[in-house]
Write a structure and sequence with these properties.
By secondary structure, this protein is of the alpha/beta class. It contains 19 helices and 19 strands.
Length: 576
């Protein structure tokens, strides 16, 4: 088996990465017998001990509601919670604490603006601009708002490097444009957009600008006053804090004019059955008991982050990205998705002939955590004409050794999927000489002979490579099995008194699971298929290692097989 060639690149960073890693407890654990290599930071970052301690301290020392109590615990909680708001203000460079609204994260921040700004400022015939590289959370809220208000959603395209077409943006900005909502750093591509220039262009046409800063916050210095954007949204869990909390910056004069997003306690000044008046900013947009503990811990995360040398962090993460790119560039069939000149630490790619989910499964087997799929950016995937990609995303606590482990595991994954030594023995699908119970037992015995998940995985891949290709007539929408992570086609038809199945997937591991099911259920009577329970699957030793999505997909395939068989049985009995 070939091994990855390590680049000779020299790291210039003076950061003490080993010391930094000590602050993050989860980095000490093992996964599948290997030290964890966590490269899924674009999805969520790990938490330093200081953040964990802040959560524990709140719940163990001064758990209380905020803003409403005169007792000591409530005062302490209020002080800590509002101190966290000030830390967010400093982090974003806002001029006024009233411009910092706590939200559940970027998604809620965008929804808040789409609703409240839309209600006040958007009318029928107006236009909202977004870009082709947006996360779903910066697409769907604007679709809903445009539908509600009779406005039109316009999409600025990207080029083949994954960069925003600035010429098209300038062309599409018109006097009808009410707002441009744009990502600062693409979660799927890593592309960094020139927000200052974009804001200047939009303001010249009278349009407001919202910036999705989810991916920028942990990687770039942010100064909303220098950017002059009208709104900027961030999520705590992307910047080493807890989940379920984030912040929206908005220019005070805009927030003052916008109506409340939700109604309830704390966002009101006076309530009667005749009328209600609103609280002052920022509380006008913060209905109900807030996420107090996580808000305080969010502040602790920003404290930790701000103590580090931000320029040194940016430089080091750029070194990691360059090193990782060079480490896997020699893989046969690799295609990088997102090659912008200005990138943050996201490395997206596909490998010809190997589904992203298959690569991700083997990386996980080696203790390497990456993200695979469409990354909630399906329009980006459609642009590059792929169903999904592998995404390795880096943070300052990742080491050079992490990249070496990732590269070695990826090279191993590609080697496993070559299938050079696989005997293409189609006879495994001819089970006519066996009863359905004998076939089940044969498969169980075979899998019981394997010592570990790696051997079982290789056996599944081998079976998948022996599965006959799905006929083109089966590749139709009506034959897709719902509930699977990858596309699965399944068709059933009768041959004499036997039900025959044709099935396949675009992921090899799923093809292997299909191969197991077809050995058991294909070429059987409808009664055998309907009445034979699938308990043998539990005996194959797969449950601990298949992801929940894969397990759900396997269950969906079995259910569909049985439904097909039952339908064919009923059709025969009715004489149709």
């Amino acid at each position: 088996m070939s091994t990855a060639q390590k680049p000779t690149m020299e790291f210039k960073s003076s950061l003490d990465i080993a010391k930094i890693r000590e602050d993050f407890p989860v980095l000490k654990r093992e996964v599948n017998g290997h030290p964890l290599v966590y490269l899924d930071n674009a999805a969520t970052t790990q938490k330093p001990q200081a953040v964990i301690d802040a959560l524990d301290n709140y719940y163990s020392q001064y758990n209380s509601n905020v803003h409403r109590g005169i007792h000591r615990l409530s005062q302490e909680a209020t002080d800590a919670y509002e101190a966290a708001r000030e830390k967010v203000r400093l982090f974003l460079g806002a001029r006024d604490i009233k411009e910092v609204i706590f939200t559940r994260g970027v998604t809620e921040g965008i929804n808040l603006v789409a609703f409240s700004f839309g209600e006040k400022f958007v009318s029928e015939g107006d236009e909202i601009l977004i870009t082709e590289m947006e996360h779903h959370s910066n697409i769907v809220p604007w679709q809903l708002m445009c539908e509600r208000k009779g406005a039109t959603l316009q999409v600025v395209p990207i080029n083949e490097r994954g960069e925003l077409r600035m010429d098209k943006l300038e062309e599409m900005l018109t006097e009808r444009t009410k707002l441009l909502s744009v990502v600062h750093v693409s979660n799927a591509l890593g592309s960094v957009n020139p927000i200052g220039e974009i804001v200047e262009m939009a303001h010249a046409k009278g349009a407001k600008v919202l910036v999705d800063g989810a991916q920028a916050a942990p990687h770039l210095p942010i100064d909303v006053q220098a950017l002059d954007c009208d709104f900027y949204a961030i999520s705590s869990h992307k910047v080493f804090g807890p989940t379920g909390i984030g912040a929206l910056y908005g220019k005070r004069e805009l927030l003052e004019e916008m109506p409340p997003y939700q109604g309830g306690g704390d966002m009101i000044e006076l309530v009667s059955f005749e009328r209600t008046t609103w609280n002052e900013l920022p509380y006008k947009f913060e209905a109900g008991t807030p996420n107090i503990a996580d808000g305080i811990a969010f502040g602790a995360a920003l404290d930790y982050f701000r103590k580090l040398d931000s320029k040194a962090l940016v430089d080091y993460e750029n070194e990691l990205l360059t090193y990782a790119t060079e480490s896997i560039s020699d893989l046969p069939g690799i295609r990088f998705i997102g090659t912008a000149e200005n990138k943050a630490s996201v490395l997206g790619f596909v490998v010809d002939g190997i589904h992203a989910h298959d690569l991700g499964a083997i990386l996980d087997m080696e203790g390497v955590a990456v993200r695979v799929g469409h990354h909630c950016a399906q329009p980006v995937m459609r642009h590059f004409e792929i169903p999904g990609s592998v995404r390795a995303s880096f943070a300052f606590y990742n080491s050079r050794e992490d990249v070496d482990r990732f590269s070695a595991a990826l090279h191993k994954a590609v080697e496993i999927h070559k299938g050079d030594d696989v005997a293409k023995d189609r006879d495994i699908f001819d089970t006519s000489a066996e009863t359905i119970q004998e076939t089940q037992q044969r498969i169980v015995d075979k899998f019981s002979s394997y010592d570990n998940w790696e051997e079982r995985y290789q056996a599944i891949i081998d079976l998948g490579q022996q599965l006959p290709p799905v006929p083109e007539e089966v590749k139709q929408e009506k034959f897709i099995v719902r509930g699977c992570q990858s596309t699965v086609y399944l068709k059933a038809e009768m041959e004499g008194d036997r039900v025959m199945f044709k099935a396949g997937s675009n992921a090899m591991i799923v093809n292997g699971l299909i191969a197991i099911l077809l050995q058991v259920y294909s070429n059987r009577t409808t009664d055998e298929v309907v009445n034979t329970p699938p308990e043998f699957i539990q005996k194959l030793g797969l449950s601990e290692n298949l992801t929940q999505g894969r397990a759900n997909g396997l269950a969906a395939m079995i259910e569909q097989i049985k439904l097909y068989a039952y339908a064919l049985k009923m059709t025969r009995q009715s004489g149709r």
